[in-house]
Design goal:
The complex is a heterodimer. By secondary structure, chain A is an alpha/beta fold. Helices cover 43% and strands 14% of the residues of chain A. The longest helix of chain A is centred in the last third of the chain and has 41 residues. Chain B folds into 2 domains: 284 residues, 2-enoyl-CoA Hydratase, Chain A, domain 1 (Alpha-Beta Complex); 30 residues, no CATH class. Chain B is 45% helix and 16% strand. In chain B, strands 1, 2, 3, 4, 5, 6, 7 and 8 form an 8-stranded mixed beta sheet that branches. Chain B starts with a helix and ends in an 8-residue tail after the last helix. Classes of the chains: A alpha/beta, B alpha/beta. Chains A and B meet through strand 2, helix 4, helix 5, helix 6 and helix 7 of A and helix 7, helix 8, helix 9, helix 10 and helix 11 of B.
């Protein structure tokens, strides 16, 4: 099955000894972990949190990404009032509500932010995951927000742009979190029936139940450079199968070669690429249902008027034809 | 409760006890997990041989290979011809290895999809039997699109015109289980479990120690009674006294009765109605709060699980 050699368990010990020390967080979050270049926060913002010297993609928050996508144009967040509850009264090393509270205090209100936003001049609904909120894990709020986002797209005839960054289903919501996978597939199914485009951008990391549900179901799927995209992460695979995985395992570039994504796109080019696809797939008519309805009504009236005049015309034509036939017959 | 109540007798008392008031203790949950994984517990082929005297197993995904962790085929039983798909574990070491411990790769899910397409063509109902610790974590499976295969299997099931029933017969863990579980009706055997991840996997992630599996199981509360309460399972199917492993014939007979009844209900609906109800079923699942945005710090405590799960309404 695998092209890679399976090592015996003794090798794991050797590997542990020889493995490079785990990457330490840079002293300053604005120092590039790859090339050590330091950037001012203003440079970071202008470069969309991409290292201008080596192209390393730093993590970016959902709201910052919305600013990047809209190019500074205003956007409106939808349903920020939806918050996690604790259906299982879950306690692991820490009670779940405490974890949520801490994550909320850190600035984000959930692992998914939905907004109505123009990208490259095209109105759309954007659903952006935030890895900093409990590992971007998908619980009930993520499922509900994404479902509502798709409902809104159908209602307003808008395309959907999704950026994923998630460790998978939110363990603390147990089987209810698992079911959000199915819920998001239902949501995307509505987009399918409404013939509305869905663009998915996979950013580091997109794993587990998110990759195994809506993240895999985009019409066009891009990945950011270096993003880990996998159902099972490398650590789980190495523990379960004792395979030794190469560093490029599951990375965006590998997944492009595996045929799992359409392209690897630099974050700085994303707004233009998304805008281009929206331009190709977008319906020119339907940004707002109101004009569409008005146009449809006006169209219906024109058709009705035409229909009223039509019978006379056709009768005349028919009679003409008949007459000419009669003539020809004689 | 209504379906269970119709069975009468001992089972109702057992289930009522489990559903009533106090949550199950950690050791009761752990016992259920042991029963769900009992090596003598009936697997899909054990049910199939009893419920479908004529069964033809089909192999291969027509793309890459055949995955023995999923069995799929066509069979004729008491309710006419059907398509049956299930996770198959093994009983002895050789068979376990052959079946990959019931952990499918993308080929397994693609085989399932291929057989579902046959169900659509021939207008046959689909029965899935779920029993897996999860989809296989391996680099080969990842290269061939494990995530996409699971996602597309769910999508395929969601779009089926034919009636579909999923039965969790053992352990249903992670997306590997749900990939076969997006159906009109979801049943769980009395001693089966359904969870976001196996207790061991959850312990490794949350406690950073796989040995804390029992703690994880207590926290996940993955039993049939809880899943029924949360609206994840529509029906809890009784097992023979002591568990399904004690009497395969009786376990199959009981399950067969429940499948027949549900199938009659589903066949009374139009394909469009079934599909709409199936969508609504999953669209509703979730437990969340709506807060006043001006006060984002409010985090309610002690939310009643029964009232919030299954979208019965967000808690105040």
């Amino acid at each position: 099955m695998s092209k890679r050699p399976i090592t015996v368990s003794v090798d794991r010990l050797l590997r542990k000894r020889d493995a490079p020390a785990p990457r330490k967080l840079p002293a300053d979050e604005r120092s590039c972990p790859k090339c050590q270049t330091h950037w001012t926060s203003d440079e970071m913002r202008r470069n969309m949190r991409v290292c201008a010297s080596c192209g390393h993609h730093f993590p970016a928050g959902a709201r910052e990404r919305l600013d990047q996508l809209s190019g500074g144009a205003p956007w409106v967040e939808l349903w920020p009032e939806l918050r996690a509850s604790d259906p299982l009264q879950f306690v692991d090393l820490e009670p779940y509500p405490d974890r949520v509270e801490k994550a909320e205090a850190a600035g984000s209100n959930e692992a998914l932010v939905v907004a109505e936003i123009p990208i490259g001049g095209h109105d759309c609904i954007a659903a952006i995951m935030d890895f900093s909120f409990l590992g971007g894990s998908m619980g009930s709020v993520v499922g509900e927000k994404l479902a509502r986002a798709c409902d809104r797209c159908v209602e307003r005839n808008l395309p959907l742009v999704v950026i994923t960054a998630s460790g998978g289903a939110r363990m603390q919501e147990g089987v209810i979190a698992l079911m959000q996978m199915a819920k998001t597939v239902v949501a995307f199914d509505l987009m399918y029936d409404a013939e509305l485009p869905v663009i998915v951008v996979l950013v580091h990391p997109t794993t587990g139940g998110v990759w195994a549900s809506f993240a895999s179901l985009g019409d066009v799927t891009y990945a950011e450079p270096g993003a880990l995209i996998a159902f099972s992460g490398p650590r789980v695979i190495e523990q379960t199968t004792r395979e030794k995985l190469p560093p490029e395992f599951g990375r965006a570039e590998t997944q492009l070669a595996n045929g799992q994504v359409d392209d690897v796109v630099d974050r700085r080019e994303l707004p233009a690429r998304i805008g281009k696809v929206l331009g190709i797939l977008d319906r020119p008519s339907g940004m707002d249902p109101a004009p569409a309805v008005t146009m449809a009504r006006a169209g219906a009236e024109r058709a009705a008027n035409a229909a009223r005049t039509l019978p006379d015309l056709s009768r005349r034509v028919v009679s003409k034809v008949l007459r000419s036939d009669e003539k020809g017959g004689r | 409760m209504s379906v269970a109540a119709r069975r009468g007798g001992q089972f109702v008392r057992r289930l009522a006890h489990r559903l009533g008031g106090s949550p199950e203790t950690g050791s009761a949950i752990w016992e259920t997990i042991q029963l769900a994984r009992h090596q003598d517990r009936p697997y899909p082929l054990d049910y199939i041989s009893r419920l479908f005297p004529d069964f033809e197993e089909l192999h291969g995904d027509r793309l890459y290979g055949d995955d023995p962790a999923i069995v799929a085929g066509i069979g004729r039983g008491a309710d006419g011809p059907m398509v049956v798909i299930g996770h198959q574990k093994g009983r002895d070491t050789a068979e376990r290895t052959y079946r990959n411990f019931g952990m499918p790769g993308p080929e397994g899910y693609r085989k399932a999809m291929r057989v579902m397409a046959l169900a659509e063509k021939m207008d046959l109902p689909v029965i899935t039997l779920i029993d897996t610790p999860g989809a296989f974590p391996g680099s080969g499976a990842e290269e061939r699109g494990q995530g996409g295969a699971i996602a597309r299997s769910m999508q395929t099931m969601l779009r089926l015109r034919v009636p579909s029933i999923a039965v969790v017969i053992g352990e249903g863990s992670s997306g590997g289980a749900l990939a076969l579980g997006v159906t009109d009706r979801v049943m769980m055997l009395e001693n089966s479990t359904y969870s976001v991840i196996s207790p061991e996997g959850g312990a490794a992630i949350l406690w950073r120690d796989a040995a804390k599996a029992k703690d994880a199981a207590t926290a996940f509360q993955p039993t049939a009674a809880n899943c029924y309460r949360w609206g994840i399972a529509d029906v809890v199917v009784p097992e023979p006294a002591g568990g399904a492993h004690r009497d395969h014939d009786e376990a199959a007979r009981l399950l067969g009765g429940y499948i027949s009844r549900a199938m009659r209900e589903l066949q009374a609906l139009s394909p469009a109605d079934r599909r709409r109800q199936r969508r609504d079923r999953y669209r509703r699942i979730g437990a969340y709060r709506e807060v006043a945005v001006a006060d984002p710090t409010a985090m309610a405590s002690g939310v009643d699980p029964a009232s919030t799960a299954n979208g019965a309404g967000p808690a105040a």
